[in-house]
Give the backbone structure.
Amino acid sequence: MKIFVLNGPNLNLLGVREPEVYGRGTYAELCEMISLYGAERDIEVEFRQTNCEGTLVDYIHEAFYDGADGIVINPAAYTHTSVAILDAVKSVALPTVEVHISDVSLREDFRQKSYIRAACVATVMGKGFGGYIEAIKILEDIIGSKS
Ligand code: DQA
């Protein structure tokens, strides 16, 4: 099983950025934690992070062309604004889980809208870094039951 873990804008600054909201762990530590989980479960994991909307679209396409079985994506602020990212997920039709480190349902009004959600098999929010592992487990269930 191969998955892509995609992270959007400002998530490269995890650990520095609003630690009271996103915690003190860094982006490198997040990737390390996911890599360890992947290695235990024999899951190949590709990581991509970008601050640019179009590049995130390109990474979704890359997951498809690279033969990924699923995508875990935290589109960060583009969650709340991007039809292009929604369309990209619909275009590739790979099982995709939306992740947010914080619980966006308890935050500002402008964070209540998620464009991408309509194309995702599940959303995990408010679980910190552990939410990414939960998202991978959801993909394992879906992909495992297909094969
Ligand atoms: C976020 C929540 C978004 O509202 C915010 O713009 C982010 C991070 C999260 O992981 O909690 O950048 O996606």
The beta strands are 2-7, 44-49, 70-74, 96-100, 122-125. The chain has one domain: 2-146.
